[in-house]
Write a structure and sequence with these properties.
Structural class: alpha/beta
Helix content: 25-40%
CATH class of the largest domain: Alpha Beta
Number of helices: 13
Distance between the termini: 36 Å
Strand content: 15-25%
Length: 391
């Protein structure tokens, strides 16, 4: 029983660890980002002695006490702590409070179990592991049990890095973009090594896994432009990471299509104006979508962006109509928002017909996983033909 928590990277870590362990033995894992009690209970229900050697659970923080409750369901043999960020502002007021909640996972470790800690996050590094449990430390420092280095990721270069462990070194090549994924992947490496899987097989499994839809997913658009889909989460640290990827990308022109920021107390006028100013400094075109889009455009204009390059649209169809004739070969376009925004529909509209007509969708998933999307051929094209695999 393996439980993974953290403010960022849980789903990616779960997905990659599942790929590594599935190649070794029958494995069950949390599907579709369902990291609450219902999703964890469902995953447990699938686990049987004849079909499960490893079970991986993504454990989310929903409210004070929720981690302890979920951890009690799992009672993990291995508990992974990835990161602590101030995401849940409506329930968690400080980073320290968030860290205390995340650390509840360690208290449910079974006797003789193992904590896997990201030492590059100071709040994770400070977590106390109960007596009688082992600790595996991973990160960039030489004191770690599993260490990383030689990190490279700037479009068109996909993420690669070197792992140093047990006197061995090996380059890990991925289909991800952005250095911020290293922590999630290093956690997977640390767990797999603990389970005595050779580093060579771990690297081979990681190389074959595609990015999760809507999380820094690279897609070749029919126009010849490359899209970076990151519209599932809109917390500030994911915005910072995605913007850094766009800023460092080698491109003819850089486009930003932005929805809104999640989990913030800032008023729309202030938060989107701030994003607009940032966009003006790093992009050639900034397109804001939604009811508050005009605030983002105003921020970009005030920062000196040309009027024809800073746009605001209330409807996703308008944004798509603007982008279709403008995008071309060599362009890189980042879609960034929090789930519930219309940016996924802007993206799909640049490839084919969007048939879903739900006006204000609040479903906690990307359109790729939703039965209401109603265009399976379009989803298949994105998944099988257009998603970037090797650069």
């Amino acid at each position: 029983m393996i439980a993974i928590t953290g403010s960022n990277g849980k789903t990616t870590a779960t997905r990659y660890l599942a790929a590594i362990l599935s190649a070794e033995a029958p494995t069950q894992w949390t599907r579709l980002n369902r990291n609450n009690a219902a999703g964890i209970t469902e995953t447990i229900a699938f686990c049987r002695p004849w079909n499960t050697r490893y079970a991986i659970f993504e454990v989310g923080l929903g409210y004070p006490g929720s981690i302890a409750r979920l951890a009690g369901l799992v009672r993990p043999h291995i508990a992974v702590e990835l990161s602590v960020f101030l995401e849940h502002r409506s329930t968690m007021k400080t980073l320290e409070a968030t860290a205390r909640e995340k650390a509840e996972l360690l208290k449910s470790l079974q006797p003789g179990g193992t904590a896997v800690l990201n030492m590059d996050d100071p709040l994770v590094a400070g977590m106390q592991v109960p007596p009688g449990r082992g600790v595996i430390r991973f990160g960039s420092g030489p004191e770690n049990d599993v260490r990383c280095g030689e990190i490279v990721s700037a479009w068109p270069q996909l993420l690669r890095f070197t792992v140093f462990a047990n006197g061995e070194r090996r380059e890990i090549r991925t289909r991800l973009l952005g250095e911020h994924w290293v922590g999630s992947l290093m956690a997977c490496v640390a767990v797999a090594l603990h389970l005595e899987i050779p580093l060579e097989r771990i690297a081979r499994a990681i190389e074959q896994v595609p990015p999760y839809p809507g999380r820094m997913q690279l897609v070749n658009l029919p126009s010849g432009a490359v899209a970076i889909r990151d519209e599932f989460k809109g917390s500030q640290h994911t915005i910072d990471a995605a913007f850094e990827v766009l800023r460092t990308a080698e491109a003819r022109r850089r486009f930003l299509v932005f929805g809104d920021v999640a989990e913030t107390k800032e008023k729309p006028r202030k938060r989107l104006a701030r994003i607009g100013r940032t966009a003006a400094a790093m992009t050639d075109f900034a397109v804001f979508v939604g009811d508050n889009a005009h605030h983002g455009r105003r921020g970009a204009l005030n920062a000196g962006m040309d009027e024809g390059h800073a746009l605001a649209f209330s409807e996703y169809e308008q944004a798509a109509d603007f982008l279709r004739p403008v995008l071309g070969p060599g362009d890189v376009i980042l879609f960034k928002a929090s789930r519930g925004n219309a940016l996924t529909r802007v993206f799909f509209s640049l490839i084919g017909e969007v048939r879903c007509r739900i006006s204000d969708c609040k479903r906690p998933m990307v359109c790729d996983d939703c039965r209401e999307f109603r265009n399976p051929e379009l989803l298949r094209r994105v998944r099988d033909e257009l998603t970037v695999r090797v650069v």
